[in-house]
Amino acid sequence: MAASTFPMPGKRFVIGVPYLWLIVFFLLPFLILLYISFVDMGNDINPFKPIWDAQTGLLKLKYENYGSIFRSSEGGALFQTIYVEAYVRSLWYALCTAVLCLAVGYPFAYFIARSPASVRPALLMMVMLPFWTSFLLRVYAWKGILADQGVLNRALMALGFTAEPLQLLYTDVSMLVGMTYVYLPFMVLPLYANLVKMDFRLLEAAHDLGASPFKAFWLVTVPLSRAGIIAGFMLVFIPCVGEFVIPSLLGGPENIMIGRVVWDEMFTSNNWPRATALAVVMIGLIVVPLAIYYHYTGDAAEPRK
Question: For residue 252, is it left (φ>0), alpha (ψ between -120 and 50) or beta?
Answer without folding.
Answer: beta
